[in-house]
Amino acid sequence: MLGFNAYAQESNTLTVFDQAVYYGMYDGLSTTPIPDGSLRLKNWCYSKKLTEEQINAIGNRLTINVTAEALCDDYDRIGNVNLAMVPKGATAYNYTDENIQRIEVGRFITPFMNNITRATTSAVPYTFEADNIARLLHDQNLYADYDFWFELEIYGHQGGESADQGGAQWDFRASGLCRGRNDVYKGTLELVSENDPTIIQGDNYFKWLAYKFELKDYVEATESNNLGQGTDDIGETVRTIDFSFDEEVPNAKFYVVMSNHGANTNGEEYRNRYHEIYLDNVQLLRYRPGQNCEPFRAYNTMGNWVYTNSVRSEADWLTRAWCPGARIETRVVDLGNLPSGPHEYKMDVPQAIFSGNDGYFPMSVYVQGYSEVVAGTDKFIVNAFTIAPNPVNDIATINVTNNQAIKSVVVVNTLGQTVMQGKSTTVDMSSLQSGVYMVKVFFDNGQAATKKIIKK
Fold this sequence. Notes:
Number of strands: 27
Structural class: mainly beta
Number of domains: 3
Helix content: under 10%
Oligomer: single chain
Shape: globular
Strand order of the largest sheet: 2-3-8-5-6-16
Radius of gyration: 23 Å
């Protein structure tokens, strides 16, 4: 019987897909053989259900590893890992089935990769830390209604007979090595887990908000189920999603996956714009998604304009929104203890410009929270401390509710930067700018808890 504490006691590796072959995303559904026990939902998506035995073998620490290898496509394409919650007992489902509650666990971009003659690395690795997904897999309430299926998506296109038609191993169309083929990638997905005995899951709280919603400023969003596209207001790249909980959610977090897509005339696909995440009209995070792409140059073995012959400066790289060959970071936004009742999530990319009505930002987001049990006891850690007043002008006082000694206190701003730290139960915020901060308290027993506080 699946249970909260039915965790593996040692390291466990489950290979979900082993070098599964993907086919052209614009072609009819392939009829070639598929991996044992899996479904081919699309040419670019395989799915496989986890058995109860496999779930019980997954510990509370989970890492998801993906490898992608080019066959007859060399472009930078999007790929992702999904956890699909499928109504209990179903043996198959359609990709667009509205009864499927799908969350995006991780997203990645394939490199410009020649895997026929010039590749120095045969497979490109991507790793995602996913302890929170282990909590979902061991949630008895969810498992009573759903089976858990893992999906691995890798998009690809073999292209035409000339390089300007996009995709395909350009050098080998004429020679026939890729002529007439539509196998584009191979993909592997494995779940690696272990059990940390100091972490005992209590109640899990989960709310699905959106899956690959196409955020763009030139279509009005009308889809109530957030599987659609558009924006709240034409000309602005913003999306607001309402949600609610019947009870307080401890340790709540937004999990947000978002990247640019679509080469419009303004090049918005590549521009590293500021993204802003709000809860109930309060900005919690402002970030630019770009990073230094040099570590991923080695995977880009096909000639391309992104990775020139010369090494770029980090400042130059940071003008780009993402790197071919890298994973897209999942933004985890700490909400503290989320009160019961209605709430509002909002994503805004205020400087985005979609020229010619082309391009979009695929956005996936969900809310998750959990309570914990102190190892060796039956005491749940939900409200480990309170802090008041909130909002605060200058001095806030921490009141510990679990009788634990404080090891340290850290105050973090919306950029994730530590602006204050110490051990005192009084926090002097008088020198800080007005805004939202997270107060993290670490206890001597190894536990930690977080509260949101607003500085006036």
